[in-house]
Hints:
A: alpha/beta; Rossmann fold; 4-stranded parallel β-sheet; B: 341 residues; TIM Barrel; 44% helix; 12% strand; Uroporphyrinogen decarboxylase (URO-D) domain-containing protein (chain B)
Amino acid sequence: MTQDLQDLQEALFExxxxxxxxxxxxxxxxxxxxxxxxxxxxxxxxxVLVEIGERWAKDKLSLAQGYVAGKVAEDILFKMAKASxxxxxxxxxxxxxxxxxxxxxxxxxxxxxxxxxxxxxGVVDLGNDVPPIDFVDKAEELGARIIGVSxxxxxxxxNIILVRQEIDRRGLSxxxxxxxxxxxxxxxxxxxxxxxxDGTCASAxxxxxxxxxxxxxxLAVGEVSP
Amino acid sequence: xxxxxxxxxxVKGEPADRRAFSLVLSLYxxxxxxxxxxxxxxxxxxxxxxxxxxxxxVDPDILFxxxxxxxxAQAFGCxxxxxxxxxxxxxxxxxKGLNDLATLRAPDMAKDPGLRYLVESTRLLAREFGxxxxxxxxxxxxxxxxxxxVTIGExxxxxxxxxxxxxxxxxxxSNHFVALASAMLExxxxxxxxxxxxxxxxxxxxxxxxxxxxxxxxxxxSRVPGPIVFHHGGNPLAAHLDMFKxxxxxxxxxxxxxxxxxxxxxxxxxNPVLLGNLSGPHLPGLSPExxxxxxxxxxxxxxxxxxxxxxxxxxxxxxxTPLETVKAVGRAVRDxxxxxx
Lengths: 226, 341
């Protein structure tokens, strides 16, 4: 890595952890103008997001800092798409995400959507308070192999079991992987098994890596005959 | 000594017959009386009966008013969902987003059923127990109420990027905090205990806390006509206490079970009371023997600190906690006997 690139990454990291969204985007913007948005995203932003993700997982970063990282990624992806709408390449997915029925805590889910999109996933976000059956209906309709369900509280996390049951009832087990996340899942990891999740991760920044694993697992299962 | 004497001794750093202690058994009273939670969290008499049962069970030195912070959110227009074994939770925020603040209801302390319930429960508790036990009025911190009203995501957005909305929400939340604290203190509460989440560097950057959290908190606290216990809100707080140690009217700090009380004491100095250090939400996983041993170990570790009060941390002691485990904590405190001479 050149010294210039390292300096850019360090400068971006500094802006994000100081919650200076505008300055961070300005920096990426200027890199994009000189070397292209692809360079700004893949060479400058992505390594910084990896570093932020690692610190977040170790509890060394605040929610606000993680949120700003997501907003910066969102801003620069939007600019990239606007600058060259034809060059967004081949999307992975699609995947379906949403907050489980009765859950209205959208923050984590929105951050997951941003980081998945930054990693090239086609994300269909069903929003808050989604009935279990709607997750599976939409996944079947789109041919999605991953459903991501978020819940913040224990009382709503328990509703995820109904998504598991619906996936199984339709014979989609394995073919459709169930990713789960949210504050209560981080606090009580045993809930992954309790509610029948196929995987989880500690922060939104780690969601792309989890979805890569789950997608590969689904492909290994292949198609399921009705 | 009665409980009041014991707690005041801790506040003054004076000798006591034994360590003052409490468990957050607000919810647990309903389990002891077999009361449905919809009734428990709406009828002050039912709450009082539950706390009478708590006193019969373990006789803690401090009693708590209903730990049902979402009743405050309901007064602003949030929709709550009630559960069989847990306090009510916000299921729909009071408004759809930061552009929808006009739909926020202005709470009316005299008419809102939830707020009247909180104040009246305080009054009944104080009337029956106030002469012998301190009553802690549990209130939502001004920095946290907006997260209930507009969701955590919108509140983070306002804190980071929309300062006009941030200040408006904080102003409303602070006024409500002062009004409810004043009403509960007037009804007989001995002090206010306020769990605070959006004050912690796990949620905000240290710069945001210093610049945008401490000044409005300081302003709100200075308007409260009584002492305040600043509660960790479920996150480790000790390492950050330098930012909060000069807040006005703060009598003490309730810390997380993961906190180092020695570190906290070194930061805040000799005077504030420190409360903790047994995790309430983890009590169901402890056997009575385990709870007894853990309690004694904590008491032993804090033996030399006269301004330490043993208490469970975080939220309510869960419904599923066996009675014997709760009783074992009280027994361990009493068995430890006189510790300060």
